[in-house]
Design goal:
10 helices; two-component regulatory system; Beta-Lactamase; alpha+beta
Length: 438
């Protein structure tokens, strides 16, 4: 392009010089007035061609620079007639095409990175220098839904300590915090890091909920402990039971009044050993994780059947059954879920009947707009003291003289096996309220 332009420029300059020389010759030669006029017009025309050649080049270059300045990759320069300008236009078009390809590749990469961040399953938040908090991906938008403002104060609804970590001046750290999410306390690992973006400093906060993982670890530890304990105790108890039965049989065959006390002692030992063996065997169910047969079923007939069972067992306790909407599908193991709810309803009935003059139990099933299944069992009993709420789900823990401490632990195992949560709260009826979220 450069050599073509130079050649054309040199030719035009040579033409102007030749015409100027001819004009000078005509001016010096008498009797050539008409020739002088013609040569003058030719000099003007050659000058105009030279000026137009340079202006068109300047115009093309200016268009190219202006397109670059505005990021306009759609500009075209080829197709213009004129010596030297077709080559220049093609060069400019090739440059624009390369620029468009680079911008397209960069845009595709940027879109990929944006989609990668948005689809990352770990919630990401950013905090800018002005204190504005941005939910950077879908996981964050699903997790944090209750704030009214995207500020540090607005996020205090999730916990004061967590909100303090969203200060741009807060130290960078990694820690386990308790967040209040959807009305439930939940542990999460919170990490923060500093980034510089376009000359601005921002904090990136990663929130990784770990409550379900901790629950699973706790349940596994409990079942392993129970499995070991029951196995070892039964191994030690089996010969004791056998020897006690043998001794009881032998002593019963001897007719000697002096052995009466020994006979009673051995018989008592035999009964207690057998009873202890049955007691330990009953706890073996705690050491077995529930195996789900998950399938969809309708909530209305499921809830109605549980209500009939409860009313048949506890006709003295009023049961309020709430279903919102009137019917919907539940994706769960109907048998295991029924077992868990029967335990909760039975406990609620016993608590209410032993405390209130008009015992009452609430059985509430509902589905949220997000598709979550919420189940609540509440009563007007005495409730559970705050200091015992962390213990009632432990295996073998009970506050009733006739309780085994297995029921609520099994309930929690069944809920966790479904990937759900269970919480204990106070209810407006005055007693305890167990809330299950699937």
């Amino acid at each position: 392009m450069g050599s073509d332009f130079t050649v054309q420029l040199a030719l035009r300059l040579l033409l102007v010089q030749l015409l100027l020389a001819a004009q000078a010759w005509a001016m010096l030669t008498p009797g050539l007035a008409a020739v002088r006029i013609v040569l003058l017009l030719l000099v003007v025309g050659a000058g105009w061609l030279l000026w137009r050649h340079v202006q068109r080049t300047n115009h093309q270059v200016a268009r190219f620079v202006e397109a670059l300045r505005h990021g306009d990759g759609s500009a075209h320069f080829s197709g213009r007639s004129g010596s030297g300008f077709d080559a220049m236009g093609r060069a400019f078009d090739d440059a624009m095409r390369a620029l468009r390809d680079e911008r397209r590749a960069a845009g595709d990469q940027l879109n990929f990175l944006g989609a990668l961040v948005d689809d990352t399953p770990i919630p990401l938040l950013t905090v800018d220098a002005d204190g504005r908090i941005d939910l950077a991906n879908k996981a964050a938008r699903r997790l944090f839904t209750e704030h009214e403002a995207f500020t540090q104060e607005g996020f205090r609804i999730y916990g004061a300590t967590f909100a303090n970590r969203l200060d741009i001046a807060a130290p960078l750290r990694e820690e386990v915090l308790i967040l209040t999410l959807q009305g439930r306390a939940s542990r999460a690992i919170v990490r923060s890091a500093a980034l510089a973006r376009l000359g601005n400093n921002i904090h990136v906060v990663i929130v990784q909920p770990v409550q379900e993982t901790l629950n699973a670890i706790e349940m596994t530890a409990q079942t392993d402990l129970v499995r070991v304990l029951t196995h070892e105790i039964l191994n030690s108890l089996t010969p004791v039971t056998s020897l006690a039965a043998t001794a009881s049989t032998l002593i019963a065959q001897v007719d000697d009044p002096r052995l009466e006390d020994a006979r009673l002692a051995v018989a008592t030992l035999e009964r207690r050993a057998e009873g202890l063996a049955r007691f330990i065997n009953s706890y073996r169910q705690v050491a077995s994780e529930p195996v789900l047969d998950r399938r969809p079923f309708q909530a209305a007939p499921f809830a109605a059947e549980l209500a009939r069972l409860f009313r048949a067992e506890r006709p003295d306790v009023a049961l309020d059954l709430l279903l919102d909407p009137s019917d919907f599908a539940i994706d769960a193991d109907p048998d295991l879920l029924a077992q868990a709810l029967i335990n909760l309803l039975r406990n609620a009935g016993e608590a209410a009947s032993g405390h209130a003059a008009s015992p009452r139990v609430l059985f509430d099933l509902r589905r949220s707009s997000a598709g979550e299944i919420g189940i609540a069992v509440a009563d007007n009993g005495p409730g559970v003291p705050p200091e015992l709420r962390r213990d009632i789900f432990l295996p073998f823990f009970t506050t009733r003289a006739t309780g085994t401490g297995v029921g609520l632990n099994l309930v929690r195992q069944i809920v966790f096996a479904h990937g759900g949560t269970i919480d204990l709260k106070d209810d407006a009826l005055g007693g305890a309220r167990f809330e299950i979220l699937l």
